[in-house]
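Entry 14. Ran structure prediction on the chain below.
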Amino acid sequence: MALTSVRPSRPQPVTERKWVYLFEEGNKDMRDLLGGKGAGVAEMTRAGLPVPPGFTITTEACNAYYAAGKRFPDGMWEQALEALHHVEEKAGKKLGDVANPLLVSVRSGAKFSMPGMMDTVLNLGLNPNTLEGLAKLTSDRRFALDAYRRFIQMFGKIVLGIEAEKFEKRLEAAKEKARVKTDPELKPEQLEKLVKEFKDVILKESGKPFPDDPLEQMRAAIEAVFSS
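Output, structure tokens:
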């Protein structure tokens, strides 16, 4: 899922605006509307390259968000959910499905790359339940726990604006306690404790618990893209 945030090229009546484009609906000539990344993946999709399914929220939606006092424009969230369902069908997975979870990435983009645009959020859709599903699908609980740990860390830093150092300190302390030098050397039980510590950081710094609802995660990530 690619999200963009620059000024639109031409206004359209609000009732007629299309805020969300599936990758297969765009092309390389739509950089103003889809951003460089969005137009790029659209063109690769049209060329038949093996691009994972996804969608782009337009630059016009970002401008409308600010014009409305930082509120999603009418119809945008509904269009995003409809596009998500299309992605789920093509991927054969579903966001939040315990047995076969869909994990998505959320990234910002503009016509031209610029300072201040947020980093990519990976593994969105993980929670305590989908974590177990991923562990079973991969037969690797350590991999699933590490993916979850990284997602919480990225979400806290990128979406919630929490200082990266607050997570890094706990990661380094966990490695020191385990007497290892690298992240991959941490065992599942140590990662489970780290996940809890990261969630405690988020609760303390943001005043709210880490969201388990994948749709709540996605909505917050979209708002973070717009804000960046």
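Residues 1-14 have pLDDT under 50 and may be disordered. Will compare against last week's run tomorrow.
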